[in-house]
């Protein structure tokens, strides 16, 4: 997977993955060219991996599958005080 470092929303990232899956597009070339099944974006909370499978039939491209995965991050950290007579 090629790496492009930009913060971005999921919908836009999946659209870019679809464009990267089509050989010869500007996005495909920017991601490293050739047959690509995904790209990884860096963002403030970690990484966003997106992928797509595209196929060509009768000079027309279609996206057969799109995939998105985000890195995990800590959402909350802290203490909870529960009275001892609760249990």
From TrEMBL:
Family: Belongs to the PrpF family.
Signal peptide positions on this chain: 1-19
Keyword Phosphoprotein in annotation: no
Organism: Vibrio variabilis
Keywords: Isomerase, Signal
Superkingdom of source: Bacteria
InterPro entries: PrpF-like (IPR007400)
Example GO molecular function: isomerase activity
Name of the protein in its database record: 2-methylaconitate cis-trans isomerase
Coiled-coil regions listed: none
Stored Pfam families: PrpF
